[in-house]
Amino acid sequence: MAFPVFALPTLAPSIVFAILFVISSISLGWRTLEHCRYSYFLFFVFSFLRVAAFIARALWSQDYTSQSKAIAAGVITSGGYFLVVQPLYAVFTEWVDRIVGLENVSNLEKRIIRLIKALIPLCSILGVIGSIKQFSASSQEEADTGTNLRKASTLGFLGLLIILLFNTLIYAQSYSNSIESRGAKRATKKSILVLVIGCLMLISGMIYRTLIVFEPTSDANKKEWYVYVFAFAPEWILMILVSVINLEDILEKDNLNSNLALAK
C-alpha cells in the first residue's frame, strides 16, 4: 500500500529544525546538569529525540519509498511526545503542593492526577503502534486500524493538555491572590507562565495533528510548512522557554537521582 500522506519531508527544513533542536538540547542538558531536576531531564530527552526525528525525516526525504525510514520518523515523533507533557504535569503538581499542599487536595483530585499521569505514556504508545501499523499496512484494514490508533493518541493528548490548561487557570484564579510568601509568589508566576504558554503551544500542535488525522485530504496535510509552523515550531518555543526560565524553585521535590532510582 502507498504511504499515508503526512506532510512528506524535504531536506532543508528538516536540517534547519534539527539544528534548532540541537541548540535547545544543549541548553536543556546544561540545565539538567546544573539543577539535577527530573523534569529538565525529560525536556532534554524530548528535545534530543526531536533531533533524531528530524534526522530521520531528512533521510526519508531522500527516499520516499523507504518503509523503514518512514516508520522511524513516525515512531520517534509519536513515541517521545509524552516526555514533553509529563514534566508540565510535574510543574503543575509541584506548584499546587506549594500553594495549597497536596495533603489538602481532595482524594478525587489526587486519583484524577494519578490517572492522567498513567494516561500520558499510554497516548504515546497508541501513537507509536498506530504509526507502525499505518506505514507498514499490507491491507486497508490494517491502515484503518493504524489511523484509528493515531486518532486516539492525538485526541488523548489534546484532552490532557486542555484539562491541564483549565486546571492551571482555576488554581491561579482561586489561590494566587492569597499567597503571602515571596518565594511562593515567584514560583507561582513562573508556573503559570510555563503552564499556560506550554499548554497553548502544545495544544496548537495537537489541533493541527487532529486535523490531519481526521481530514487526510486537507491542504494542511499536503503542504510541509504547516507541520513546522503549527506542530514543531511551538514545541521548540516551549523548549527555549523552559531553558530560559529557571524552574529550580518550582521543582523542589523533582530530584533527578531519586526519580531515576525509583525507575530502576
TrEMBL record:
<feature type="transmembrane region" description="Helical">
    <location>
        <begin position="112"/>
        <end position="132"/>
    </location>
</feature>
<feature type="domain" description="DUF7702">
    <location>
        <begin position="15"/>
        <end position="244"/>
    </location>
</feature>
<keyword id="KW-0472">Membrane</keyword>
<dbReference type="InterPro" id="IPR007568">
    <property type="entry name" value="RTA1"/>
</dbReference>
<feature type="transmembrane region" description="Helical">
    <location>
        <begin position="71"/>
        <end position="92"/>
    </location>
</feature>
<feature type="transmembrane region" description="Helical">
    <location>
        <begin position="40"/>
        <end position="59"/>
    </location>
</feature>
<feature type="transmembrane region" description="Helical">
    <location>
        <begin position="192"/>
        <end position="213"/>
    </location>
</feature>
<feature type="transmembrane region" description="Helical">
    <location>
        <begin position="152"/>
        <end position="172"/>
    </location>
</feature>
<feature type="transmembrane region" description="Helical">
    <location>
        <begin position="225"/>
        <end position="247"/>
    </location>
</feature>
<protein>
    <submittedName>
        <fullName>7931_t:CDS:1</fullName>
    </submittedName>
</protein>
<dbReference type="GO" id="GO:0016020">
    <property type="term" value="C:membrane"/>
</dbReference>
<dbReference type="InterPro" id="IPR056119">
    <property type="entry name" value="DUF7702"/>
</dbReference>
<dbReference type="Pfam" id="PF24800">
    <property type="entry name" value="DUF7702"/>
</dbReference>
<keyword id="KW-0812">Transmembrane</keyword>
<feature type="transmembrane region" description="Helical">
    <location>
        <begin position="6"/>
        <end position="28"/>
    </location>
</feature>
<keyword id="KW-1133">Transmembrane helix</keyword>
